[in-house]
């Protein structure tokens, strides 16, 4: 599902909101989540999952063309951990293989 799919589905479900209002609401929520993660905060949405920041330590890698060693700096990356309800819902929707 893309962002525009989400906006279309919400606009369809919430008939009192226009497409533009729905798009603004989705953008506002995603921007607030991005800002919170950028400040190092953790986001938890009950029944869905949690977002946090993981630290990747600096390491030494290799250039695949030349084989030369390259230092890769430390990175902070977003991490998503699905909640129990989401995990169980996805697991229950899998078709059973015979």
Overview of the molecule:
With 98 residues, the chain is of the alpha+beta class. The protein has two domains: 1-41; 43-98, IHF-like DNA-binding proteins (HU Protein, Chain A, Irregular), CATH 4.10.520.10. The chain has helices at 3-13, 19-38, 84-92; strands at 43-45, 49-56, 59-62, 69-72, 75-82. Strands 1-2-5 form a three-stranded antiparallel beta sheet. Strand 3 (59-62) and strand 4 (69-72) form a beta hairpin. Helix 1 crosses helix 2 (19-38). It is extended and about 60 Å long. The two termini are 29 Å apart. The mean pLDDT is 93.
Largest sheet: 3 strands, antiparallel
When the domains are counted, the total is 2
Number of β-strand runs: 5
The SSE string, one letter per element, is HHEEEEEH
Oligomerization state = single chain
CATH topology of the largest domain: HU Protein, Chain A
The helix-and-strand class reads: alpha+beta
Q: Calculate Rg over CA atoms.
A: 20 Å
Summed over residues and divided by their number, the pLDDT gives a mean of 93
- For the record, what is the CATH homologous superfamily label of the largest domain? IHF-like DNA-binding proteins
The CATH architecture of the largest domain is Irregular
Helix content: 40-55%
Low-confidence stretches: none
**Portion in beta strands:** 25-35%
User: Given the C-alpha coordinates, what overall shape results?
Assistant: extended
